[in-house]
Amino acid sequence: MIVAVGGGSAIDTAKVLMVGNDANRFADLVAGLAGERAFAPTRFKSLVAVPTTAGTGSEVTPWATVWDRERKVKHSLHLPQTAPGWP
């Protein structure tokens, strides 16, 4: 289980960290978000989101924004399993 305490960025980061595949390589997720190759998540951790700010609503949605600073692009991660409180 991952407990995210903070604002939208902290909760989005937790959503990204809770998703994995059999190879357990973060680079596979990044490549999938960039559209370079398919990413099939097979491992998930549960998420408890504790917001400390009001604004983004990240604590109640399955969406996570991921910035790729090297490529200067923004990606969106959206899976049913990344919604806080998913079993």
Radius of gyration: 13 Å
Structural class: alpha+beta
Query: β content, as a range?
Result: 25-35%
Specify the number of helices. 2
Query: Order of strands across the biggest sheet?
Result: 1-4
Residue stretches low in confidence (pLDDT < 50, at least 5 long) are none
Query: What is the end-to-end distance?
Result: 10 Å
Q: Number of DSSP strands?
A: 6
Order of helices and strands: EHEHEEEE
What is the overall pLDDT average?
A: 87
Query: Could you give a short account of the major beta sheet?
Result: 2 strands, parallel
Helix proportion: 10-25%
Shape: globular
Protein architecture, described:
Helices cover 21% and strands 30% of the residues. The strands form three sheets. A two-stranded parallel sheet has the order 1-4. The chain has a two-stranded antiparallel sheet with strand order 2-3. A two-stranded antiparallel ribbon has the order 5-6. A hairpin with a 4-residue loop joins β5 (63-68) and β6. The protein has 87 residues and is an alpha+beta fold. The longest helix has 10 residues, at 8-17. It has a domain at 2-18 and 45-82. The radius of gyration is 13 Å and the shape is globular.
